[in-house]
C-alpha cells in the first residue's frame, strides 16, 4: 500500500496504546516524507483533527 499511495499521503496518524507504537511512529516519521504522529487510543478525535488540518480545502 505504501508504495502505491506514498506520494498522496502527507500525514499519517497512528492511534493505539503502548510505548512500542509510539516508538514505531517516531521511526516512521524519520524514515518517510509524510508526517507521522502517534496518538493514544483515548485521543483518537484529536488524531482526526490533526489529520484534517493537513487537508487542503
Automatic annotation (TrEMBL):
Coiled coil: none annotated. This is STAS/SEC14 domain-containing protein. It holds the Pfam family SpoIIAA-like. It comes from the Archaea. InterPro entries: SpoIIAA-like, SpoIIAA-like_sf, STAS_dom_sf.
